[in-house]
Every structure is written in C-alpha cells, then in structure tokens.
Specification:
CATH topology: Rossmann fold
Strand order of the largest sheet: 3-2-1-4-5
Order of helices and strands: EHEHEHEHHE
Strand content: 15-25%
Shape: globular
Low-confidence stretches: none
Oligomer: single chain
Number of strands: 5
Number of domains: 1
C-alpha cells in the first residue's frame, strides 16, 4: 500500500516531462490520478497505460478548470492533491526582450502564471470543504 492510497490527485501538464513523471509517481504511491493536459495524445496514452483518467484541460480557461474540477468531484468524490505542472517556454526563454512580442509574452504568462492561479482558485474551495488537501506548484526552466 502506497503513501497516497486512495487519495485523488489532479496533475496538469501530464502529457510530458515533469507532469508525466508526477503522474507515474503518484500512481505508484496508490493515488487515483486524473492526468490533465491541453495536448491529448500522449496524456491519453499515459492514462491508458496506468489505468487512470485523462481530462483535456486548457489551464488558461476558467471554464475548463470549472469543468475538470467538477468532473473530478463527480467521478471520485474528492480532490486531495493538485499538482500544477503545466508550463511552456515559448520564445520568451530563448529570445531577448527586444525580440519577444507582447503577444508571446502574454501567452507564456497566461499558461505559466494564470493557469496556476486558476487551478488554485478552483481547487481550494473543494479542499477547504473537506478540511484537507495539498497544492503543489511546479516551475522549471531548461
């Protein structure tokens, strides 16, 4: 029996990198994992391999967040862990301020910052009602 036996975990950015590794680790520890990503192919494949759930989620969309959290609650009855691992680099990381457009800057900030904020905002009320929960916000750079 794992440390997270029967806990329900929602992981964003689950189609690759840190998100996919997190899905695997939580699953290995016994969690019921909902893998979420805007990119469906790799995420659906991972979910099928592990026997967990996949949910399409654009982390920049309030409506998507509301839908996914409602679906998690309907399917599992709780949300114990949220891992915000979705993130993009875009041209911001490899460019310079002079070469990065404002639109590109806003796109990256929307995924990396707004997405994390929206996830916390939707998960917190559910966790507060239960009196427990963990939110893990991850960032990285290459």
């Amino acid at each position: 029996m794992g440390r997270l036996q029967d806990k329900v975990a929602l992981v964003t950015g689950a189609s690759g990198g840190i998100g996919a590794a997190t899905v695997r680790a939580l699953h290995r520890e016994g969690a019921r994992v909902v893998a979420a990503d805007v990119t469906t192919g790799a995420g659906e494949k991972l979910a099928a391999e592990l026997g967990c759930t996949f949910s399409k989620l654009d982390v920049t969309s309030e409506q998507d967040w509301k839908r996914v959290v409602a679906d998690v609650m309907a399917q599992h009855g709780s949300l114990d862990v949220l891992v915000n691992a979705a993130g993009i680099e875009g041209d911001v990381v490899h460019g310079t301020p002079e070469s990065t457009s404002l639109a590109e800057w806003r796109r990256v900030m929307s995924v990396n910052l707004d997405g994390t904020f929206l996830g916390c905002r939707e998960a917190l009320p559910v966790m507060k009602r239960r009196g427990a929960g963990s939110i893990i916000n991850i960032s990285s750079t290459v």
